[in-house]
Protein 1
Amino acid sequence: MELWVTEGTTTLNYWLNWRVLLCSLIVLTPVVIAFFIIWKYEGLKQVTCDGTESQEDLDCNEFYDDDHVWKPCLEEIHPFWLFGYRVFAFSFTLATNVIKVVVNGGAIFYYYTQWTFTLVTIYFGFGTLLSIYGCYQHHRMSIFGATVQHGRIDAEQGCYVPLANRRDTNVQGKTLNPEERCSVSQAARISSYLFQVIFQMNAGAVMLTDFVYWSIIYPFFTIRYYDLNLMTVNMHALNFILLLGDAVLNCLRLPWFRISYFILWTDAYVIFLWIIHACVSIWWPYPFLDLSSPNAPLWYCFLAFMHLPCYGLFAVIVNTKHYLLSKWFPQSYRCLR
């Protein structure tokens, strides 16, 4: 196994040249564009306590419903199945992360792969918590629906239904004042928003990670921690499979403007590497990111461009799923249209 070490990364000569300047433009320009897109489509949105929004005609309004983070895409699928899948995926990814850190140490976090796999683990952990809440909500709604149905049957049969038996149908409305309901609603919407952003960052990141490894690193480079073994396959194949399985079950979408968070995620990793190498002369986890190479601007430009097809391909898969389910199961399909 080789280490790609470049001497003198802490010197001014390494950083003050045309290659670094051009690579900086390639990295920082998408950051500015991404922040502008986020500001345009999401930064102006403000939700008031009565549930109304101060900014109208925003294309992203439909992506803020909090119950779609735990509801499966079809009514016949109980939320418990999505919960069970997320528990399994979280346990698997967490165990893989722990083993990887124990075996290789903290230096494993120099790799974009580890960043992405950790983000996938966070996604499934967060999703597990939201699914627990969703199963509880589904259980309460089932009880409420059964109570209402029982009351209708009794009414049709001429039976008297005491008010005491119907007292719990409006418990939440009586126990929570408007300010408390507003706080609960805001917390749910913030949690939903963060969860969707993590899902959409993962959608592009796992595609980029697997593409770079199987098409560039594995055929052409031999790098530390990247010997082909079961653990490597887990982190460069099952990450996509697990996320795809969740995408098949859930109701989440991939709006085009959310690619901005994926771009910021990758740029944060690149800037992290630059800061580390400016302070300490250590090995480069990916040789093509070495700024001393004459081809560095071409590599950076290529990787920046690959964000579009990586995010777009996963978006096509998700949108195709929604389209087919809406056609095949129009009555039970309950995702956002």
Note: The first strand starts at residue 4 and ends at 5.
Protein 2
Amino acid sequence: MAQLSQPSIIFDDDEKSHSSGSDRSESDSVFSDPFEVFTRIGLLKTQENDPRYVNIKKQLAAAMQSSGVLNASVVAVHRNLFSCWTRHATWQSSRIIEKVVAEKCGGNANVGWGWYGGSRDLICRTVLHGFFCRRSDHPGPSGIGVHLFSNDHSFDCARSSDPDENGLRHILICRVILGKRELVPFGSKQSSPSSREFDSGVESLVNTKRFIIWSSDMNSHILPLFVVSFRAPANLRGKKLRKLNIPRSIQPSAAAAAAAVRQPARRSATLTVTNIINALAEVLPAPIMVLLKKSATDFRAKRITSAQLIRRMGTLAGKELLASVVKSCKRSESNPIH
């Protein structure tokens, strides 16, 4: 299974406080200290020289700058202490679920990072009581569930946040157990895995923007770790991610795709085949992947033509899935493999 791009965020497995935090949400009150609402629900403000603070700040700043937002800044990072018994139980449950999913997926639970934006009140309620999802409130662009932005799309998450009365925006950074992911088409009303083989959904298998965690798993597969508070322009929601000059650390797949276009035709073909194979590995069982990889090897060794490779891939993976993956890879619809 293809590895997820991991953020440079440090998480301590023993990161649980001995202090007790109130389990009562007071996010509706206006405090003289704009962060008192977080401390009252048991979050601890991270020092600015803490590696976690530094790494989160660098990543969000890079995402903002790459999108042309230069006057945005991280103001504070609070971490979840898991101090009350309910949140401590959630922390323990997450570890157990990770082991179960890892065993099911051949040793890899596919743990990644998910970014979740919203209002300050929503963030506080989520930390206190967990995620919630109703069909009428969270249909999402692809599937019905909790949608989290991937690490490479933290700017999109920032855009989904709402400013509070102090002009601050807040987002959650969560540890997410993804397991085996399945492609959920745009506009789908899917609300659960299509089979027991899958654990979560994605709207694209290449350069994934959103992870979809089904409502049945949202409070066992998602663990809120950090609340990031930042200032940004009032028109942030209207900003769009630039397509050019994006640092490789923020958009590695997009940068790789741009580099592939500049390569000679034969090398570009090899890279395209690799992208498709990696994407199919997310959703197809191992025996089929063995055959697909053998076909790719035959193609690279010029033992079969591109047309023969396409026919083999269509037969093994299914024409509909192959077409969807090719579209995700943003290749030519008429001749995806040159």
Note: The longest helix spans residues 85-104.
